[in-house]
Amino acid sequence: MNVLYKDIINSEIAGARKVAIAGHIRPDGDCIGSCMALYHYLLRSKDDLDLMVIDVYLEPIGNEFRILKGVDDIKHSYESNECYDVFISLDCGSLDRLGNAQKYFNTAKKTINIDHHISNNSFGNVNHVVANASSTCEVLFGLFDENLITKEIAEALYVGIIHDTGVFKHSNTTQNTMMIAGKLISKGIEFSKLIDESFYQKTYMQNQVLGRCLMESILVLDGKVIVSSVSYRMMNFYEAKTSDMDGIIDQLRVTKGTEVAIFAYETAPQEFKVSMRSNGEVNVSKIAVYFGGGGHIKAAGCTLHGSLHDVINNITPHIEAQLKALNKSNKLSE
Q1: Buried b (16+ CB within 10 A) or exposed e, 84-115
Q2: Is the same domain home to 142 and 261?
Q3: Is-contact 34 23, C-beta < 8 A?
Q4: Number of domains in the chain
């Protein structure tokens, strides 16, 4: 069921003493931003709600997100056997995406699922999924009392929105997205600094990896698809983390004449995290879901096993089939 934030507070959180917040594995800007925004929002209401504990669980985050206040409070260890009254999942399309935090979801008395992924399967006791929202941070803004949004909450929400919209250039950016961004700016945030330091700035090593990915990229399906990758060996050579791969797929996507960009990096031998971006009408979410992943129509991902050639050979037939169907449909409509 869909709920309003006041209903979550009054019906689900009120009376709870211990609350856990968690996002998906390999947390990105929207995941981190939404978790920190909700964390600070609940801290503001802690005394009124009689909350004793508010814990945020995430895998290690990139240094670029250190710009957000409170990130040092995030728990990266899952060794405790804490049982929570309420567990709130943010930016997760399915339960398995919670990773190690799933154990706290399973033992919680109540679970709340807040998300914007079209592939979300409503796995919580309470579900608030807005598939046409640009980001989970945009969803949260709609659930928050604007008068209670502080500068630090606004910063977290803004970072989440800019990361999932590619600084407002992706097709998921709407009039509502821009209106919300304006309201967050009115809270006094240093929006230019947030954009530069969390989104655009790269380390020397990240630029080297990006450069290699661009130089070694290939075109397939008559130039309609661009593919690049980072091997496990290369990851180790550069001492790169998964967060260092952020932004590579977006740079591949803007290659002129391509319909789909595919970027795969090897997280373990023969295990690839695959990101896909669509420039046209190809539904990459449909492909990702087929392989056990998820996401949005124009931006999705999944995990595949095998060699890089296996990855390409598994995914490209799905893209080719969609392109043929679209071409046939366009011819019939002429």
Answers
A1: bbbbbbbbbbbeebbbebbebbeebebbbbbb
A2: no
A3: yes
A4: 2
Angle, to 10 degrees, between the axis of helix 175-185 and the axis of helix 136-143? 70
Tokens for 313? Answer: 């050979």
Task: Provide the pLDDT for residue 325.
Answer: 93
- pLDDT the model gives residue 243: 84
In our burial notation (b when 16+ CB lie closer than 10 A, e otherwise), range 44-55 reads ebeeebebeebb
Which residue, 122, 152, 125, 154, is CA-closest to 137? Answer: 154
Of 183, 200, 217, the position where a domain reaches its end is 200
Q: What is the pLDDT of residues 30-56, one digit of tens each?
A: 999 999 999 999 998 888 778 899 999
Residue-wise pLDDT for 119-163, tens only, equals: 899 999 999 999 999 999 999 999 998 999 999 999 999 999 999
pLDDT the model gives residue 333: 67
Q: Is the pLDDT of residue 1 over 50?
A: no
Q: Are residues 302 and 182 in the same domain?
A: no
Query: Using alpha carbons only, how large is the chain's radius of gyration in Å?
Result: 20
List CB contacts of 147: < 8 A, sequence separation 6 or more.
none
Torsion angle of the four alpha carbons 249, 254, 260, 262, in this order, in degrees rounded to the nearest 10:
-20
111 pLDDT exceeds 90? yes
Residue that terminates a domain, selected from 200, 220, 253? 200
Let me know whether 294 and 218 are in one domain: yes
Q: What's the N-to-C CA distance of the chain in angstroms? A: 42
The two tokens of residue 315 are: 């995914």
pTM of the model: 0.83
